[in-house]
Design goal:
The chain is α+β, with helices and mostly antiparallel strands and 227 residues long. It contains 3 helices and 13 strands. It has helices at residues 21-34, 45-57, 93-113; strands at residues 2-7, 10-15, 36-39, 64-65, 84-87, 119-127, 133-136, 146-153, 166-169, 177-180, 187-191, 197-199, 206-214. The structure holds N-oxalylglycine and manganese (II) ion.
Length: 227
């Protein structure tokens, strides 16, 4: 169910919570059974369209060369990755809709899988022609607090020759890899510590959102999340 609502003089598109249940259920089952979920054409169409329109209209100066590692966005390392990113907050209507949807997914996964997910952070990524992200992991055992990675793609009409596939290594051997085409509306979710992955060089502009659900690792010296 999709409702148009008026909130503080803004028209807000409210996506019926119940519409998401079959999708969230599939993600939960896939994560439980194999640790990852790859679902083409899965992001609700009004949400993916809003995100795509937003990214089209974003001025390029909003994107900054990506860093490697948490809190190290200033450390540029072109060897590992050459994309540029723009962190998402809920100050725009689109950001708010995205945070709302990811928040519903977080609540659902916590209730189904008892993951204790506590917060979510995400950014738009732009890979220009030739850009890549070499083999890496989003979190390391016992160290990081990123539990679950979520990626969605915003590329209409992506062709095989456009490259830019996400390669997810699902086993001990290199052959056990899944190539994901970054097609409009595809959702990828995986356990952050379990799956090394890379982005092959793109042959045209490639847009995605990468996000991470985290557990609370606040202690007396540090408040989580670190904003
Ligand atoms: C990342 C990442 C994959 C993609 O940003 O950590 O792995 O396909 N992105 O954009
Ligand atoms: Mn990654």
């Amino acid at each position: 169910m999709i409702r148009l609502m008026k909130r503080s003089n803004k028209i807000v598109i409210e996506i019926g919570e119940s519409d998401n249940v079959p999708l969230f259920e599939t993600i939960a089952q896939n994560i439980f059974n194999k640790g990852y979920s790859i679902l083409p054409d899965a992001l609700p169409s009004n949400l993916v369209n809003m995100l795509w329109n937003h990214v089209q209209e974003m001025p390029s100066f909003k994107f900054k060369k990506a860093g490697v590692g948490r809190n190290e966005d200033h450390v540029m390392n072109n060897v590992v990755r050459s994309d540029e990113v723009c962190w998402i907050n809920d100050e725009t209507e689109v950001g708010e809709a995205w945070q709302h949807w990811t928040g519903s997914l977080q609540t659902f996964l916590n209730s189904r899988l008892f993951l204790g997910l506590f917060s979510f952070e995400s950014h738009f990524s732009h890979y220009g022609q030739g850009d890549y992200y070499k083999l890496h992991q989003d979190a390391f055992k016992g160290e990081a607090n990123r539990i679950l990675s979520l990626i969605v793609y915003l590329n209409p009409d992506w062709l095989p020759e456009d490259g830019g596939e996400l390669v997810l290594y699902t086993g001990e051997h290199e052959q056990e890899a899944i190539k994901v085409i970054p097609k409009f509306g595809t959702i990828v979710v995986f356990l952050s510590e379990e799956f090394p992955h890379e982005v092959l060089p793109a042959n045209r502009d490639r847009f995605s959102i990468a996000g991470w659900f985290r557990v609370n690792s606040s202690n007396t010296d540090r408040i989580d999340p670190p904003i």
